[in-house]
Amino acid sequence: MMQYRWLHGLIDLLFPPRCVACGRLGSYFCRRCQAQAKLVDEQICVRCGQPTTVRCTCIHCRQSPPDPLRGIRGAVFYGDPVSFAIHGLKYRGLTRLAVPLADYLHFYLLNHPLPFDLLVPVPLHAQRLAARGYNQSTLLANELGKRQGIPVATDVIYRTRHTKPQVQLNRQQRHENMRQAFAPRQIGRLQGERVLLIDDVCTTGATLRACAVALHRAGAGEIWALTVARAQPPPEPEPWQAGLSAADLFVAWDIRQSNPSPGEVS
Description:
By secondary structure, the chain is an alpha/beta fold.
């Protein structure tokens, strides 16, 4: 460990790091940019974690069948400058960005405690892990585990197949893409431990819910999920196109007021 710190120090001396968001010298994610992240507050759907103007259970979750995942939480909203840091961690090999990004997770838990005994990072498929060289979710979980004093388990579930990237898929396609994409390494590997799933970004929650199904089969008790950032899901049909009741129309309007599309922002 000391050898790596010495090496990092030498690299920083020869090639001073620049903030991935603003370009300022000194660190890969400067404190000024870190402070610009918009924190997620209490006004969310208690199941999927999507922001609303009041704390409630949203339409999608009320219409969805029960699943093992108790709830999804995001520490900050996805967008600049946090998106630059997440991109740098995932695609540019800037693994030290896991430290400031894990700070968001730790800060969230200090203010919004969740019950858990074990941290489990969302696993990558072996093919993608080999190409990237590391799992960014594992790096985040390890950093959070140090701060929380909670063990991290990477051998409970695994990815069974290489799935298509979720970016261009809608809600239904994302859930279909993730169906049976994870499995327990051993049925009953856990003995009722409460698990907190860790990932970098959540959009619709399809990946986290698929992981929760595998964790349930592995013997997990209560299962929650926490991600660094909460992103907006792909556009859905207008409420009047979905055959909703008057009450559901109001809740849909309420959610839309809390999450205006870019073209609706004044």
